[in-house]
Amino acid sequence: MLGRKLDMEIFGTISEGSVYFGYYRERGMNYKVYILTNHKLKTSEQCVIIAEEFIENSSTKKLVAAPLGEIFYEPEIRKRVAMAHTEISHMICLYEKSCGAVVFYRSSDSIKYLLVKNRNGRCWSFPKGHIENGESEKQTAAREIKEETGLDVHFKADFRETGIYHPFGRTSKKVVFFLAETNSDKVSIQRREIDYYRWVTMDQAQKLCKHENDIRVLEKVSNLLETAN
Predict the structure, then answer these.
(1) Any idea which of 86-90, 104-108, 126-130 has the lowest mean pLDDT?
(2) I need a labelling partner for 90 at 20 to 30 A (CA). Which of 133, 138, 185, 206 fits?
């Protein structure tokens, strides 16, 4: 169902301009849907299914939609749907968002960059993770770096790169990367998330990273740091 565009009839609201109840008709049946929005809705709207919710202690699932052009990520979906007193065990979302950083360490004679290989991935990349409710992008990046590597970092101003890719199915994932410096190269990886880590030179990083977006981010970092040395 994720990504399906459907004509919705609106029949009620929990919070006007935020959460509505609606339904779509298919094969002579009405199917109820939560509809999230940042605007006041009309009596009918064309929407897209943005999440499938699985309810605790139940085999049923509920659908969440949004008007075309409106994007909501999991933390905000959970927050709004909680208004309907629904206990969610887990959900699958059309849109995902992760934040992280290219982490670097200055030694006496060079700059080294931290690459990690997480348990669900096949390629080397940078520490990152899903944004949580109430967090800014940099707060998410700092928390994920600390959790995954044990490192404290400080961010370089005016560096923010984004990319969008499709990890599976119709899911669209937005990734935000910052540039962050650490004063220590002593890494303590989070075993349930990370399999390996490496400190590498820029040349090595550009050879090890395979995702087009990661390579593009490294080029920006190289232009900023490497050419300045």
Answers:
(1) 86-90
(2) 138
Q: Is residue 162 within 8 Å of 174, Cβ to Cβ?
A: yes
Contact 139, 92 (CB under 8 A): no
Q: Where are the beta strands (DSSP E) in 141-209?
A: 154-155, 161-165, 172-182, 194-200
Residue range 148-163: average pLDDT?
A: 94
Is the separation of the CB atoms in 214 and 125 below 8 Å? yes
The alpha carbon torsion through 181, 202, 166, 75 (nearest 10 deg) reads: -10
Q: For residues 62 and 212, what is the distance between their CA atoms, to the nearest angstrom?
A: 35
Rg of the chain's alpha carbons, rounded to an integer? 21
- Residue 189's SS3 state is coil
Cα–Cα nearest to 65, from 17, 24, 25, 11: 24
What pTM value is reported for the model? 0.85
Q: For residue 5, count CB atoms less than 10 angstroms from its CB and return exposed for 0-12, middle for 13-18, buried for 19 or more.
A: exposed
Q: pLDDT digits over 60-101, tens only? A: 788 999 999 999 999 999 888 887 766 777 889 999 999 999
Cα separation of the two ends of the chain = 51
Q: Which two tokens stand for residue 85?
A: 């007193």
CB 40 within 8 A of CB 15: no
In order, the DSSP letters of 12-36 are EEEETTTEEEEEEEETTEEEEEEEE
